[in-house]
Amino acid sequence: MKILVDANVPGAEACFGPLGELVRLPGREIDAAALRDIDALVIRSITRLDAATLDTAMAEGSPLRFVGTCTIGIDHVDPAALARHGIAFASAPGCNAEAVVDYVLTSLLTLAERQDWQLVSRRVGIVGAGNVGGRLRARLSAMGVECLACDPPRAQAEGSAGYESLDTLIETCDILCLHTPLVKKGAYPTHHLLDARRIAELAPGTVLLNAGRGDCVDGAALRQRLAGPGDITAVLDVWEREPAIDPALRDLAEIATPHIAGYSLDGKLRGTHQVYAALCRSLGLPARLGLDDLLPPPPVPRMVLENGLDPDEALRLCLRTVYDVRRDHDSLLRESRRLGMAQGFDTCRAHYPLRRELSTLTVELGAGAREVGPWLQAAGARTSS
Questions:
Q1: Which domains are delineated in the chain?
Q2: Which end of the chain has the least Cβ crowding within 10 Å, N or C?
């Protein structure tokens, strides 16, 4: 059995090596020709596996029978084409959701520090209440931050209670966080969900954060709003036309990162393990490795807080101990200027440094810091006294 795995998927040797011959390729180099003698394929979001690619590969005799993507989103894959060719398919729902929530929190707390406001004083609108949005809503609500959610498909399935329209969020929220998949057809398309009209309607002072899919926002309209009035703030992790993103929009975003919101080691290995388990099921084999077998100890397992910190300061310090979003902003700026936009964008992703999740950190609270304990716990940190 021959298994082709994206070169940026961690833990592949441990998971897939015992199952067959392992081949690694950069994700953007995986095409129909690369699948010629491949039985199983494991990819990430930068590999596009559309009907044309699959039809060509299968017409040329590819023995492909399993495809797994180590990602939450699946808009880069055509499941109908896979089913038509009898190819089993698996994704990794929720694998990096905690990492994305960490990204959102550290980004918002960075803005709060720069702009001199408190997170609890803001109303947050969450567009897309799935694995990421649902976790973000739960954490923020536990922290006492007022949240509204918009998710029309869930509202239809579950009832409208607890859900608002997107226009209501735009009218009433200080922060708008997008965590939607890219859907181009059907009752609830998300392509340019934030179009020119809606971007123009954002109130001055609004923070727009997109960690869903780049095509859900009209980048040209957002660039025009930022370059013109310049009265809103953008935090962008996802972009139209990745990796050749708009350099002007990159420069206008307060925080600009190269599609790495979910790039914690924990999230990546969780995704690898979910696809590994799915491949084992497809082969009728037991999954002999557990996730704990793949995760190394965190580099900073414990920190101590004493008195003198307000809740925002304490959480900001804890988050930056495990992950500082400013590093990724600076990296994208540096590498895209050094190598050109597309190559610089991909270089940041391919050589991403070690990053762990907030839940791997235990915060020991001194007598003068115990009052911030509930806030830290609500945000996802572990605490001890």
A1: 2-91 (3.40.50.720), 97-256 (3.40.50.720), 302-384 (3.30.1370.170)
A2: C
